[in-house]
Design goal:
By secondary structure, the protein is mostly beta strands. The chain has one domain. It is built from no helices and 25 strands. The radius of gyration is 15 Å and the shape is globular.
Length: 145
């Protein structure tokens, strides 16, 4: 069994094997093994997506997001943290969506909303509609988005 340490306490990670909607606040890692996952609330922790079903984020994801090779994620809310997109995966930032943080992209990002952060990888970012990449403000050699 996998565990997180939250406020000094050992907490088991959450594993999802069927369609699931997260409402309210959850602290800790969520592993979506199968089924459709919908985030309406706030997830403070890692989100690992291994399901071939689409994921929808309407609330806030604060932490790392890791997609698997066939993942499709639709973001109408906010992702804050590191996002990893492997080859074959797609992340769609809808017009109301925001992606903030480090993006490691070897797949495809469709940007209809806003992205602010640093990118790496060989994947592509396709800007559609009013989508845009926010340029940083540099103060004392530090980028602020």
């Amino acid at each position: 069994m996998s565990f997180d340490y939250i406020n000094g306490e050992k907490v088991p990670q959450t594993f999802i094997h069927e369609d699931y909607e997260l409402v309210g606040t959850h602290n800790g890692t969520v592993n979506v093994e199968s089924g459709k996952f919908i985030l309406h609330g706030k997830l403070q922790g890692t989100l690992c997506l291994n399901s071939n079903e689409p994921t929808e984020i309407y609330g806030e994801q604060q932490g790392t997001v890791s997609l698997s090779g066939n993942s499709h994620v639709f973001v109408n809310g906010t992702i804050q943290g590191t996002t990893t997109i492997p080859y074959g995966a797609t992340l769609i930032i809808e017009s109301t969506g925001k992606l903030q943080g480090t993006l490691s992209n070897d797949g495809t990002v469709i940007l209809r909303g806003v992205f602010g952060g640093v990118t790496s990888g060989t994947g592509q970012i396709i800007t559609e509609g009013n989508g845009y990449i926010k340029e940083p403000v540099v103060r004392n050699g530090i980028n602020y988005y």
